[in-house]
Amino acid sequence: MNIAQKLISKHLIDGKMEIGAEIALKIDQTLTQDATGTMAYLQFEAMKIKKVKTKLSVSYIDHNTLQSGFENADDHKFLQTIAAKYGIVFSPAGNGICHQVHLERFGEPGASLIGADSHTPTAGALCMLAFGAGGLDIAAAMAGAPFYITMPKIVRVNLKGALKGWASSKDIILEILRLLTVKGGRGAIFEFSGEGVKTLSVPQRAVITNMGAELGATTSLFPSDEITKDFLTRQGRQHTWLQIEADSDAHYDEEITVDLASLEPLISLPHSPDNVKKAKEVRGIKVDQVCIGSCTNSSLSDMLLISEVLKGKRINKNVSFTVSPGSRQVLSMLSSIGALTPIIESGARLLECACGPCIGMGQSPKSAGISVRTFNRSFEGRSGTKDALVYLASPQTAIATALSGEICCPNEYFGGDAPKIALSNKFYIDDNQFIMPAADSGKIEIIRGPNIKPLPNFEPLPDNLTLPVVLKTADNITTDHIIPAGSKVLPFRSNLPKISEFTFGAIDKDFVERAKSAKSSIIIGGENYGQGSSREHAAMAVRFLGIRIILVKSFARIHLANLINFGILPLTFENVADYDLVNLNDILVFENLAGSLKGNIPLYAKTPKGAISLKYDLTERQKDIVFAGGFLNTMRN
Ligand code: MIC
Ligand code: SF4
């Protein structure tokens, strides 16, 4: 078996490990963050379970940390009291970014993890079976239910040789994105092997598994080897280590090879992570901002590298330079060994250990500003400035750019090889920063400020529907298009009526009014609809506005699961060319929906240009959820 098969079979509760079949997995750990956590826990409460049934559940505060009104602080207090009551570890604001902290303090080789955040596969660097999911799936797992996915194909990524010059692990994943695009990983687990694996530390591996999310991959995995053991030992957690490698005769469904020695520093151009070029091909573009951090590149080694490079240097005076260490552990280690000083003296604006600019929580660039970031997403408007141009690159490329004031290749700017970063054997470990669940949880009162609004009830899906098309989108629509992030919208993650007012605002400012006046309606979309973030608000808000069916060329995995969970029927075109036959404001008629789906008979929609045939790729379990009006209704029933 390959590693993915070993981990899946270890957690398999139901289903066959055949590509395309639905499988149910036992979940050992869950994580949430504050932007998705409020909904996840409201849903968990609705399940009326006394204590979480997982081995470990952690609730992180890392996204909505700017408190420019009462809303975010209300959410934090709600999350803290919920955690204490239901047996969840609470990681308060300032403690660090969920994926970075989870890797340091909780990740375990061989265990399974689902997180209400699309970058949860970061933990695959420790050989955890880790998936991003919607909040409702996390709530269900905390209640002891299995997690359902479609059995993916397993792609072997053969890493040949070793990195040279200033190339880094970020360039490995940017190269794979260049080759495969943001759709290229759908329905796949990427399993890394080959001699190159032995040259990468756990934090370097984590850069790759983290950005596997940008490929649309189900998850990514590295073996658990001596390097993993070394990382866990520094973290004082060697007892959690176990060796996990693929069998020598393991079978893979597909294979790609990346030659590390031939990689040069790369950069991803606006507005899609797969728009990748060599950094030297775009050299000379003047930049306004450089940001180092995010769950992709905020580890101690990344920070030590920039500190080393910055010694005695000053950032270009036209560049606003921000640094967000990934965790309190990273920040504290930097400060105790004096590595923070060169960063501060270079002119950096030191930010909190949190997502910050990555999710538009401050540091929006100036109008039409150019920002080079070590992050993982560059979607239009995500930075908080609609016309900003965001480039994604490694800390090596970003720091050369910050010093020179224009995009440049670190191989050309510095020459030679990047400094080798030695890590100390003793890491700063202070788990007192976590708030452990209360022993006497019965007495805990859950505090709900005015920003915490109750969950709405969604009705079952009718059998016959006449629906106007209220929106027709292009390919690769992200959940950032559907429900934007940023400091103005994120505070309403626990307030569905309010956040729904922002739905699709960036691409069609009349959408909300149109949907409201239609009452019941349909959206038409292209390929890879709903890629990116796991935010279930992108399904909930749409359902709240009356959308009953979404008909597209293809869906992204997590969003598809979220649509089902909230009772929206996801359909695809039998012939993708039929996409051209349907237009905004057309009326589509659907008859005998339940009868057709449950009887597995062909489904059609009547359109002004005639009938078109539709596909529904749903299991019986999923059909029941959709027709009941969502997962919570099936539980209540
Ligand atoms: C993101 O990077 O888009 C987020 C913000 O972390 C999201 C979760 C969210 O929308 O809250 C994600 O990746 O799932
Ligand atoms: Fe936070 Fe950005 Fe990572 Fe999402 S991608 S978890 S916003 S740092």
Largest sheet: 7 strands, mixed
Low-pLDDT stretches are none
Query: What structural category characterises the helix and strand content?
Result: alpha/beta
Q: Rg, please?
A: 24 Å
Average residue-wise pLDDT: 97
Q: Which ions and ligands are bound to the chains? A: alpha-methylisocitric acid, iron/sulfur cluster
User: In what range is the share of β-strand residues?
Assistant: 15-25%
Alpha-carbon distance between the two ends: 40 Å
Output the CATH class name of the largest domain. Answer: Alpha Beta
Which descriptors would you attach to this protein?
637 residues; alpha/beta; Aconitase, domain 3; Aconitase, domain 4; 3 domains; 7-stranded mixed β-sheet; 21 helices; 28% helix; globular; binds alpha-methylisocitric acid; binds iron/sulfur cluster
